[in-house]
């Protein structure tokens, strides 16, 4: 037989083996399902009932549960992320079954960091599987204990980590097992819980389920003697302080359409002044299901020239892309509160904050400098997701592909940049755009800009043809829908531009021409370099992406950042501020709301405090409202006086100082 014949035989054998494996897997699954749905749960005590239920399915237990118990890995990853710098630890896994949690934990932390791991379970068959697994894996520090979790305590008398992985709902005297576990949890220890749940009728917003889901899932699980009611988590939070949680839902093998609710919860001994509460945040109407801005779209350099930032400052700013909020911390602000009513913008800056806290500079650079990271899924699972709020996790868990396709081509403005770049290529201007973006000098940039065929035609072509061309481009690219969803320019701001007597195409042309003639994109204007290329450069990027600034933020400054998903006025009323950055927010408001804002600023900004804003109007009408509210108001720059700043997109820049003496 020739080589080809040998290859066919080998292929047939492989296919036969694969088919056998698939049949074996299905057979195992059917065994598990049969005992889950129709199996006996009889016995004189809890141990006997567990054995009657799990004994016949013990050998197939792990493979089936890996497609069902979705909270295990996030719980273990979250625990490992908080304990990764420690060693000589003791871990007690209560209701640990087959020891699969130990195997999964090895993906997140070196098991040698634990001097002892106790897998505790009352089911004999599951413990036997765990013992065989520990022997096969060579786990010398793993001890399988067949015992009642309500009575077990580690020989050392304390544990660094205690976990309940889908076991707490199956322990009838849950008060006893929680009390016992808390009694030997070390003062600096951590407890992790993953399990199915239903909420109470009135529960925290992030947990709340409808009455139909509460009734359905509690009834379904009750058939298997699993109590998924809210009482267990409520008792946990009476004994321990909640550190972090996520609430989600996961699919069930062979059960289409239905998704079972589960939670992951981490707790520790209470500390003074701790409070963790996250409201359910809804996206406002008319907002796209993602962020508008991937970077802050205001030049921070003029801000720093006038704001007198110091360690005594509490600064309130709109979130936007979050770059400028981080810049304030680097420049010495004592506390920065950043607020946006779009939860997607909060998710973006929260991811930046968590990345700075938990990743090395090169990983942060790839994520937010290059906008692409080849290992984003691994980093997210192990180092980012364990620290994100539930709202942000819900957002990013579905959008990690942003960092595969390019972060800066996502969101409203990102999509607009992608469309413009694509149009440039289609029109044969792709190479010209790259040359302008990478021009070595400002003089060369000006030359390339002025000699560009489109710009040359607009400036020097026949007036009628130029007029028709400009009107066509304006209708296609500068209509209200594109301006709102791509550039974040709402109708009220558009009206302010028109009130100044400036056609929108002239407004955009003034912006672009001013940047091209006055700001060297390659060396000093990271805003437009990013728009033209979809990335930043190490010497041309927002402050937080510079290595020295990153080190300061990671060293503790980023802890002074508070991210809030809220309406601006509500956050303004929440505390007193020394500095407030309105960006162009007031352009969006009706006159009576602008008056309310001016009055609130007068109450919430300390005497001597500073408020700054930009406007698409040369003389925004609300400037007078703020002046009458008790501020000295001054226009610093206006577009009709020339080039504004590196963004150059606004018509005026204002500063207002609160009258009265400082404390």
TrEMBL record:
Checking Gene3D superfamilies in the record gives: Vaccinia Virus protein VP39 (3.40.50.150)
Kindly list any coiled-coil regions of this protein. none
The family database entries (Pfam families) matched by this protein are listed as:
DUF3419, Methyltransf_23
Domain of life, per lineage: Eukaryota
UniProt name for this protein? Methyltransferase domain-containing protein
Species whose genome carries this gene: Gonium pectorale (Green alga)
